[in-house]
Amino acid sequence: MNTFDMLKVIYIIEGTIINKTPLRVGSSNSQIIMSAVDNPVLMMRRGDLEVPVIPGSSWKGLLRSEVERLVRSTEELKETYGDVWRACDIIELTENEELRKKEEENPCVVCRVFGNTGIASHIRIFDSYPLGDYSLEVISRVAIDRVTGGQSPKRLFTVQVVSPLTKWNFEMQIINIDLSEESPERKLISYLFGRIISGLQIGGGKSVGYGLVNIDEKSVRVKEIRTGKEGLASKSYEGVDALKELEVT
Ligand SMILES: [Zn+2]
């Protein structure tokens, strides 16, 4: 059983994310009212500065939907991993008490990693900030007519984006999923890192190619902290070795 009563192993994963295309995580309405541009990017105070941010919750939502898609498209892995190899519908769970109780008692593999109303998440993802210089630009886009699907040239709108090739920090922790042992949870984690390396889209404007990010493989650092009879043991890995540790091959 993976519980938090006892800490067995933690992986602290850090690296540098780069956005290949304009990146736009939008802000809430209250910030828009205060802003001089339409559709500003989400900013957060960091020290004395306001900087763009990719919230950890955005990462978590994105990674969760990635693994849901994997699980739903690989039914055959039920033969290997058993009945836990399924992905529940989290919205359905909030509306259906009986289903929710069932899912809390016998969670699907996605909930076993990401948590649900009854079990804690085994991963933590922190906010990403630019690691150095960045620039913001305002792009004019044409509104798509929702009825006809065509462009309506008079309906231009502007969005603020973070310029391509900005470097961002990435930090994630995996708690009590032992990556040295075969398990359905490990399968999800290794898949996720494969996706983060090959590239994912985060934020708004996905249909026009915005928000394509990936991690710089050489930048990946993993610190593994394990509890044993002799207390805490910690090991660190970088680059290719770090990816091996995450079961990315
Ligand atoms: Zn579930």
What characteristic shape results from the CA principal axes? Answer: globular
Class based on secondary structure composition and strand pairing: alpha+beta
Uncertain runs are none
Bound molecule kinds, no repeats: zinc ion
Domains counted in the coordinates: how many? 1
Which percent range fits the helix content?
A: 25-40%
What pattern of helices and strands is seen along the backbone?
EHEEHHHHHEEEEHEEEEH
Q: Cα-atom Rg, whole angstroms?
A: 20 Å
Number of separate helices? 8
Termini separation? 27 Å
User: What's the overall average pLDDT, rounded?
Assistant: 90
- Major sheet attributes: 7 strands, antiparallel
Word description of this protein:
- The chain has one domain (9-245).
- The protein is built from 8 helices and 11 strands.
- The protein has helices spanning 29-34, 56-72, 78-81, 90-95, 97-105, 109-114, 184-198, 239-245; strands at residues 9-19, 43-46, 49-52, 123-125, 136-144, 151-162, 167-175, 200-201, 212-215, 221-228, 231-238.
- Strands 1, 4, 7, 8, 9, 10 and 11 form a 7-stranded antiparallel β-sheet that branches. It has a two-stranded antiparallel sheet with strand order 2-3.
- α2 packs across α7.
- The structure holds zinc ion (ZN).
- Residues 88, 103, 107-108, 110-111, 116 line the site of zinc ion.
In short:
This protein has eight helices and eleven strands. It has 249 residues and is of the alpha+beta class.
Question: How would you summarize the topology of this molecule?
Answer:
Blueprint: E1 9-19, H1 29-34, E2 43-46, E3 49-52, H2 56-72, H3 78-81, H4 90-95, H5 97-105, H6 109-114, E4 123-125, E5 136-144, E6 151-162, E7 167-175, H7 184-198, E8 200-201, E9 212-215, E10 221-228, E11 231-238, H8 239-245
Antiparallel strand pairs: 1-7, 1-9, 1-10, 2-3, 4-7, 5-6, 8-9, 10-11
Helix pairs in contact: 2-7
The protein binds zinc ion (ZN).
Zinc ion (ZN) is lined by residues 88, 103, 107-108, 110-111, 116.
